[in-house]
Amino acid sequence: MTVQSYQLKRTAGRWSLLCLLTVFLFGSCSEEELRKESVITVDQNSYTEFDYWLQRNYVAAYNIRFKYRFEDIESDMNYYTVPSKYEDAVKLAHLVKYMCLEAYDEVGGIDFTRAYFPKLIFTIGEWEYRNNGTYILGQAEGGRKILLSGTNYLNRYLKNAEELNEYYLKTIHHEFTHIMNQTKDYSADFQLITGTSYVADKWSEVPFDQGYLQRGFISAYAQHSDKEDFAEMLSMFVCNSEQRWERWMNEAGADGARLITAKLDIVKSYMQNAFNIDLEQLRSSLQRRQKEVVEGRISLTDLSL
Fold it and tell me: Which pairing describes strands 65-67 and 120-123: parallel, antiparallel, or unpaired?
């Protein structure tokens, strides 16, 4: 099974807090209190209002399951995490629908979305923290599943477009790009543009955590590999305004901007030729929808059918 992940660098303060919480929680349990069975139990026959909404807006519309109840079989046992809060999962489901599914419907048609979007979205409440100073925002697995983490932090970022992009929207489009790449591969010419400059897991370390634009990468994480570079190029382009992109190109300088533009041309051609998706139109749709969400003009809690 192929697994692609998207990560962010973690602050020392956040890591220290996580360690303290872990020590406290495990230190407060005796052997007698530990049980073999899960303490998270859900009556699967008891449908909530949200479940009925998901049935109509995800299953019936796209044949996609949006899992917000915690299931250990869907999670990675290498990380400490928590279930998504009901209220936050409701908002995230609306965001994915409005900012991804319906944006692709608008530009590529609903048949495209139904055919290529993965059939399972699984959410967890916490980020997946790694021991190298990064944490995982999402993963795409085998063309069938997207994991979205950090659901319980969503309310912090809903009114800030850049943060909403960084932690959620870009992640969704980044992971969907991996799914499309697993379905139809992109040109080998892409990895040749900066082929000797990929640094794998060192992307978050000095000196690679700075100056990446000048080296021809749209983000620090893009330096990981050509697959992550491709997904970063697409997601960063569609999730950010034309004005912000131009600022990045100015900061990149002539050489860096030339390399990034060469990659973007391949990404645009790939989407047009493989899926008949105009990336400029997709960005316009997303920018309009993002503005509506941040300004509070789109309800993220309406569960009416």
Answer: parallel
Distance CA 273, CA 267 (A): 10
Q: Are 76 and 128 in contact (CB under 8 A)?
A: yes
Cβ neighbours of residue 302 under 8 Å, at least 6 residues apart?
A: 94
SS3 299: coil
Tens-place pLDDT, residues 52-85: 999 999 999 999 999 998 665 555 556 567 789 9
Residue 16 has pLDDT above 70, yes or no: no
Pairing of strands 128-129, 120-123: unpaired
> Which tokens sit at 151?
């659901």
Sort 65 into a burial class: Cβ within 10 Å, 0-12 / 13-18 / 19+: middle
Give the burial class of 269: count Cβ atoms within 10 A of its Cβ; 0-12 exposed, 13-18 middle, 19 or more buried: middle
Residue with tokens 């795409």: 140
Bridge partners (DSSP) of residue 145 are 120, 141
Whole-number Å distance between alpha carbons of 72 and 62: 25
